[in-house]
Specification:
56% strand; mainly beta
């Protein structure tokens, strides 16, 4: 496997986390809020059996990724929304986090 360095983290992503609060009518209100901007390496995955395009994201530690998270990925003409589909794993001497994210079509 390729040795990852901070020079490989070339894509700017914005973390989105799910915020829930009581609506005072017996239910909950959920909304996505923007978190910190992070630098990441984004690699497309070809052989994944997913509904949409999937990517492997690699970020630098320390960063806590909530269980239900998304990332906004601004490209030249569009902004893609990537939903994290697995728990992040520490790699390479616990210096980086890696995870799989699927592209959402209705973003």
């Amino acid at each position: 496997m390729k040795e990852i360095t901070t020079r490989d983290l070339k894509e700017s992503l914005t973390l989105l986390y799910l915020h829930t609060e009581e609506d005072w009518a017996g239910g909950w209100r959920e909304e996505w809020r923007e978190g910190p901007q992070v630098w990441a390496a984004v690699w497309p995955l070809i052989s994944m059996k997913t509904q949409g395009p999937a990517y492997r994201l690699t970020l630098r530690v320390p960063l806590r990724i909530p269980p239900q998270s998304k990332f906004l990925w601004p490209l030249l003409n569009i902004t893609k929304c990537l939903r994290v589909t697995n728990s992040p794993s520490l790699i390479q001497y616990n210096r980086f986090l890696t995870m799989i994210a699927e592209e959402e079509e209705n973003a």
